[in-house]
């Protein structure tokens, strides 16, 4: 497993796609792209379209904002290629948005960490490579909102969970690894 972290527009996706293309060519296997973004507004629709246009037509795409574990498990049983998961923090955001407006932090932590554990269990079943893209949100200012602080804390926790199971972790800044 490879974890790729970075800020907005840091080059994470391009770097992950490069890894996926090289792995696919080297191992004569397919690339499965797992997309979690939802198009809530026009700007997000444009972002999603640009991401789609950057991918080769031969890649298999699953678009699933919430039930990624069931899709992940389905792919794991059928494929031995490479999975590119874009992106962990978008998925976490989608999960948090399913909670009641008055959720407690402990409730959110329990829910998201359970989903992350399910994700990692599915990853263990997969015979190929997995590249996970995630936004590095926990390095900036502390969010002024409860939801923002909860999200930042969970991002850090989930990044540590994935990093502990990863073969490599890369941080991108201005398109370069550091």
Can you tag this structure with a few keywords?
Rossmann fold; alpha/beta; seven-stranded mixed beta sheet; 6 helices; single chain; 178 residues
What gap, in angstroms, lies between the N and C termini?
A: 18 Å
Q: Return the structural class.
A: alpha/beta
CATH class descriptor: Alpha Beta
> How many domains?
1
Q: In what range is the share of β-strand residues?
A: 15-25%
**Low-confidence region ranges:** none
Q: Using DSSP, what is the number of strands?
A: 7
At the fourth level of CATH, the homologous superfamily is P-loop containing nucleotide triphosphate hydrolases
With strands numbered from the N-terminus, the spatial order across the biggest sheet is 3-2-4-5-1-6-7
Notes on the structure:
This protein is α/β, with parallel strands linked by helices and 178 residues long. It has a single domain (2-177), classed as Rossmann fold, CATH 3.40.50.300. The chain is 51% helix and 19% strand. It has helices at residues 12-27, 42-54, 68-78, 88-96, 105-125, 146-165, and strands at 2-6, 31-35, 60-63, 82-86, 129-135, 168-173, 176-177.
């Amino acid at each position: 497993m490879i974890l790729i972290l970075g800020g907005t527009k840091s080059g994470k996706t391009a770097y992950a796609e490069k890894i996926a293309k090289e792995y696919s060519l080297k191992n004569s296997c397919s690339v499965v792209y797992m997309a979690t973004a939802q198009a809530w507004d026009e700007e997000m629709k444009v972002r999603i379209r640009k991401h789609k246009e950057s991918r080769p037509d031969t890649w298999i795409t699953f678009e699933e904002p919430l039930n990624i574990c069931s899709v992940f498990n389905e792919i794991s049983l059928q494929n031995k290629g490479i999975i590119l998961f874009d992106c962990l923090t978008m998925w976490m955001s989608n999960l948090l948005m399913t909670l009641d407006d008055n959720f407690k932090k402990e409730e959110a932590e329990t829910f998201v960490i359970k989903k992350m554990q399910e994700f990692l269990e599915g990853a263990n079943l997969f015979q190929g490579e997995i590249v996970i893209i995630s936004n590095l949100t926990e390095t900036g200012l502390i969010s002024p909102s409860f939801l923002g602080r909860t999200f930042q804390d969970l991002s850090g926790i989930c990044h540590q969970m994935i990093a502990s199971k990863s073969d490599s972790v890369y941080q991108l800044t201005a398109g370069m690894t550091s």
